[in-house]
Design goal:
The protein is of the alpha+beta class. It contains 14 helices and 13 strands. It has two domains: 12-183 and 362-408, Aminopeptidase (3-Layer(aba) Sandwich), CATH 3.40.630; 190-335, Gcn5-related N-acetyltransferase (GNAT) (Aminopeptidase, 3-Layer(aba) Sandwich), CATH 3.40.630. It is globular.
Amino acid sequence: MQLEIGKVLQTPAATAICVDAPRPLHVRVCSSWSDLEAFRAQWNHLLRTAAGVGIFSTPEWLAAWWRSYGAGKELAVLLFFAPNDELVGLAPLYSDIRKAAFGRKLTVLRLVGDGSRDSDNLDFIVRSGYEGECAKRLLSWLRDWSDWDLCVLDTLPGASLFGESLLRHLRATDWCLLEQRSPHLFISLPHSWEGYLQRLAPEFRPLLTRYPRRLRARYKVDVYQCTRTVDLEKNLASLFSLHRKRWHERGAEGVFVNPNRRRFYQEVASTFLKRGWLEFWLMDLDGSTVAAQFCFLFGDTAYLLQEGFDPRYANEKVGYALRGEVLQDLIRRGVRRYDFLAGSDTYKFAFGAEQSSYLRIEFARPATGGSAHITLNRVDVGVKRWARANLPVPMIRLLRRALCRADENR
């Protein structure tokens, strides 16, 4: 794939649309991260004017992800410019080869950050009011560029204005489309710790009040935030070890067996610590680290990315105790949202979580390998719905883990 930085795409279809559009946009494509870095200041400005974007759309997150996972993939970041050359939209895309049914291979376009199970809440970064025009420009570009089979946009916010605009335009075409929703849980934080506790079920509340007091009576408890670069390596090693111990109890390796993922966390932690975005908390009992939470703070939202605890202290509820300490501190500082990200684990509801959704959009041109893949996916979605309605939960979890491992090994 040969794409040039700063090259305006001059296709007949795109030119015709630009003439007729009320807000004509032109498109430039970056095919290397060094080319994209030239637009970092405009990217950061766009983040301040776009609706609903979060920390996973920042240059810091996506650059670290690309350096860790971008080998063998091809970058195709679309920049949408207004007539005055002001950046009004950014589509951080890349292409990769994916195995499909019957031994076929597909060239898949995805959002940078997707594909490693590290990122959520990914989206196009679009200035408010330009969502429709950027969606049209995207489809115009894809219509005239042949080097792709399938576009998969995963974990878009359920209320993404760009996602809604894209769906409207896709439904007006003969392109093949599959739209899915998945759960996304978060806690709306009140203005006081006491107010938060009152929201919880009476039988759950002691896990955040009486159990921590009992813990302090039995051990020397130290809860602390990682605030120094010099401590990062040791604290990350604790997180990796605790997470691995937890998954070993379930007969699995855990995600940090992947060296790329460890490097990614190390770079993100270092970068975010310098920016003041890192919320990395740990708990020691009698000098030994027994629990960790790896979170970020962006705007008024804290994002929980990863956590771990020592299974030997499961009965002491050390993970719950640490989360309670973190929530208290966030509330005290005026943070308004604690984001669990994807998944609908039961324990999250016990902490007072509310449910929204993520949006997944798959689409392809008609009569292509991509459209055939989507047709098969529709069947797969139906099978999964049947399984949820007819199979016991433990069996579903085993199947999900097996599929996750298979997907990571592709």
